[in-house]
Amino acid sequence: MRLGRPFTLLWAGQSASLIGDQLTRLALPLVAVLVLHATPGQVAALAAAGQLPFLILALPAGVWVARFGLRRAMLAADMVRGVAILSVPLFGAGGYPRLLVVAVVVGVATVPFQLAYQSVVPALVPAELIPAANRRLTLSESAAALLGPAAAGLLVGAVGAVRALYADAASYLVSIATLAAVRDGGAIGHADAGGAVRQVIAGWRYVLASPPLRALMWASALFNAGFAGYEALLTVFAIRTLHLTPGTLGLSVAAGGVGVPLGVALSRTAERRVGRGPTLVLAAALSAAGPFLVAAATPGTAVQLVAAATAVTGIGGGCWGVAALTTRQLLSHPDMRVQTTATHRFVSLGVLAPAAWAAGLAADTVGPRWAILTFAALGALSLLPLLRVPRLSWSTPTVRAAASTPKTTASTYLGLSRSTSGTTKPRP
């Protein structure tokens, strides 16, 4: 199935960049633990610093991305992230505050990148090929999950945590080169209608008016809050409590990375047999199960349970990634796609920083194991919003037909009197 040159370039660049992202997610905490001797609370604060910009910037960034253009927003974000990551091996870690600044800068640039990345596929491929395109992007994430942690652990062991970040900086260069060659995927949405504040309000009204979009948002927020706490504590828990080496931790996480492609395949089969709503419930249940296994690990079972936890969470995450992203893209009116994404990302990713910070406090108070168990339970609550949505509400044709009526056009949600939305043509 041919998805076209623009999408192929995007896919190639992001495949390389995702591996680098996985390397950073392991290497930066290892710099803090091994080089700067950070406390569990400081390691969790480092993770929180990288996620805090989503809570502050996601909504206004949605307006900016729509005006600036999806491809150009991704290019600018990759340049900033590449320079920030490169500064660590070039000039040294320089103490915990400087590492914290790097995490914040990378987080700020990641906000517009994620909004554009989550919205660009419908601008590059026809509607009927969106699920296939999203499966390929999710498979790239699985390859990153499989190769990234292992490469990070081995690379850190070979050259040190600081120098290992050169590889991540190189991955951003690859992404920049491929994005520069893409000539499609400009702004999506009615970028100038009603001003920035009105567009932000429009995104909220649009998402809250749709039961499936609303359920996806709250389910993602609950799971992400739980998983952020778990992920913020995993490195310090694995090294200091389970006594794993960085290389062993990386290999254990990588061994479970095979779960994501299984989840991608499962999503296609499950949607065909039971529908998209039940598929999302199944994916959420599997995703939430993994952290419970890690909380039960001992030094003697650490390798097996960390790998099993990553595999189970990967199966659920791969299934969720395809089904949820496709659902949001297809159920959103084209004029509202970027603002829908911005609203979702503000809520679902905005919880990451507070959750990671709270996990650090919990770990300092009750210990990493009990803190991980608490946040695993929080993530399991993600099932509740999904179970409240009637099964037929997930039907794409029904919602898409409703989206084409005057009362649900972008103009209505922007508070304008026109019954048509005046979709702007995507610009390069």
UniProtKB/TrEMBL annotation:
Location relative to the cell: Cell membrane
Identify the main location. Answer: membrane
Q: Which InterPro entries match?
A: MFS_trans_sf (IPR036259), TM_effector (IPR010290)
UniProt KW Transport keyword: yes
Q: Does the keyword Chloroplast apply?
A: no
Query: Topology with regard to the membrane?
Result: Multi-pass membrane protein
Signal peptide span per the entry? none
Q: Which UniProt keywords apply?
A: Cell membrane, Membrane, Transmembrane, Transmembrane helix, Transport
**What's a Pfam family this protein contains?**
MFS_3
Membrane spanning stretches: 43-66, 215-237, 249-267, 279-297, 303-325, 346-363, 369-387
Give the matching PANTHER family.
INTEGRAL MEMBRANE EFFLUX PROTEIN-RELATED, MAJOR FACILITATOR SUPERFAMILY ASSOCIATED DOMAIN-CONTAINING PROTEIN
Please identify the protein, giving its name as recorded. Answer: MFS transporter
Q: Which organism is it from?
A: Rugosimonospora acidiphila
Taxonomic lineage per UniProt? Bacteria, Bacillati, Actinomycetota, Actinomycetes, Micromonosporales
